[in-house]
Design goal:
With 236 residues, the protein is α/β, with parallel strands linked by helices. Helix content is 27%, strand content 14%. It has one domain: 3-Layer(aba) Sandwich (Rossmann fold). A seven-stranded parallel β-sheet has the order 3-2-1-4-5-7-6, with helices on both faces.
């Protein structure tokens, strides 16, 4: 039985259909036995997300419910350190997985910033990266936009899955054109988010009145946190 494990990290403020599509596409293309959805912590020196860690984790848990092989984990929420991707991957390696068994799942838009991540380029040796196309960010363009990494980029499936060293797997897929920022704006404006998030997540948001009113000093257009420079989980 395969030990290939997917790791989908993000602030999930809130988790949405685009996140789910990215995870499902990677799972299907790479035959992942498990997909761990890791809700990121946010360090004290950075702006906090709009929703609490409790609600962000709860929404992630709701989103994975009933999905074969998917698990929501509070791995990053149980520690008071920044949610750097490199540290997350090291924790999985400490559990006995080989780097070639781990697949960090990420959208092509977020992967374009990999050069600014903490521990780059050595982070690429800690796990495979499963990069999934996003609206406006086709994976076909990555080798041209990141030429230094082109030699590590491959298409699944094939012999590349048996490579001795971690690779960058490019997965072309249709994923929902939605972002957490757009969802928060719609909710603050009193607009529907039906179809933009899993039904259970929409119900949780509505039951708890999340994002319907901005905290004092925060505007709808304000970003929830800085870009994910340094490798902080931040897939929007």
């Amino acid at each position: 039985m395969t030990r290939r494990i997917g790791i989908l990290g993000g602030t999930f403020d809130p988790i949405h259909s685009g996140h789910v599509d990215v995870g499902l596409s990677a799972q299907a293309a790479l035959d992942l036995r498990r997909v761990f959805v890791v809700t990121a912590n946010v360090p004290p020196h950075r702006p906090q997300p709009f929703a609490s860690a409790y609600h962000r984790f709860a929404m992630a848990a709701i989103a994975v419910n009933g999905r074969d092989g998917w698990r929501s984990t509070d791995l990053e929420l149980r520690v008071l350190t920044p949610s750097y991707t490199s540290e997350t991957l090291k924790r999985f390696l400490e559990r006995g997985y080989a780097a070639t068994e781990l697949f960090f799942v990420i959208g092509a838009d977020a992967f374009l910033d990999i050069g600014s991540w903490r521990d780059y380029p050595s982070i690429l040796d800690l796990a495979n990266f499963a990069v999934v196309s996003r609206p406006g960010y086709p994976v076909d363009e990555l080798s041209h936009r990141l030429p230094r990494l082109a030699s590590r980029m491959v298409r699944p499936p094939g012999d590349s899955l048996a490579a001795l060293d971690p690779m960058i797997f490019l997965i072309d897929a249709q994923t929902a054109d939605v972002s957490s920022t757009a969802i928060r704006r719609r909710l603050a404006a009193g607009e529907s988010i039906a179809g933009l998030v899993p039904a259970g997540v929409q119900q949780h948001i509505e039951q708890h009145g999340l994002y319907s009113a901005m905290p004092p000093g925060r505007r709808v257009s304000d970003p929830p946190q800085p870009p994910a420079a340094g490798g902080l989980h931040g897939q929007d």
